Amino acid sequence: MDARFINPVIDAFREILPQLGFADIQRGKLSMGSNSVESLGVTVIIGMTKDLRGSVAYNMSEATAMTIASTMMGGMPVAQFDELPQSAISELVNMVTANSAIRFEQMGMQVDISPPSLVVGSDFRARLLQEKFLVIEMLADGNLIQLNLGLESTQAN
């Protein structure tokens, strides 16, 4: 995967999450994934098309998803990961990915994003379009969110 695809996603994450109430955004480890993303409990997959092709799988534990949803909703307690917090997490993914798409367009790449698909459960694997993908650990106030980037350019070099 092209290294140019990393910073727009990380920068979008770092810009959007403070707007939603998170004070400390850190990047953790980078690694390569292969074959499939193993769910941590909540996985939201969103696709990209046009000059980029592939998807980003946002992966986190259900406890992290509930904490993030609570923060996004102004501290409202979230006792279970039902429809409202699921909607909040999907909206977070939409916002970060849309911001990434804007950054890619500023680099001269036209990008459309798909609606997010949210899957709950830890006993599954999601296959991305690319067999090899980048795994970026991001921490939002200490809450781990894995960004699994399986993107490739459709532009001629």
Would you mind describing this structure in some detail?
This protein is of the alpha+beta class. It has one domain (about 5-155): 3-Layer(aba) Sandwich (Chemotaxis protein chec). Helix content is about 30%, strand content about 40%. The chain has helices spanning about 5-20, 60-70, 85-105; strands at about 25-35, 35-40, 40-50, 50-60, 110-115, 115-120, 125, 130-140, 145-155. The strands form two sheets. Strands 1, 3, 4, 5, 6, 8 and 9 form a seven-stranded antiparallel beta sheet that branches. A two-stranded antiparallel sheet has the order 2-7. The longest helix has 24 residues, at about 85-105. The radius of gyration is 15 Å and the shape is globular. It starts with 5 loop residues before the first helix and ends with a strand. The model has no long low-confidence stretch (mean pLDDT about 95).
Largest sheet: 7 strands, antiparallel
Bulk shape: globular
How many discrete structural domains? 1
Quote the distance from N terminus to C terminus: 14 Å
CATH H-level superfamily title: CheC-like
Strand content: 35-45%
Order of helices and strands: HEEEEHHEEEEE
| CATH architecture group name | 3-Layer(aba) Sandwich
What is the CATH C level class, in words?
Answer: Alpha Beta
- Overall mean pLDDT stands at 94
Number of strands: 9
Radius of gyration: 15 Å
Number of H- or I-type helical stretches = 3
Poorly predicted regions: none
Percent of residues in helices comes to 25-40%
What is the CATH third-level topology name?
Answer: Chemotaxis protein chec
Structural class by helix and strand composition: alpha+beta
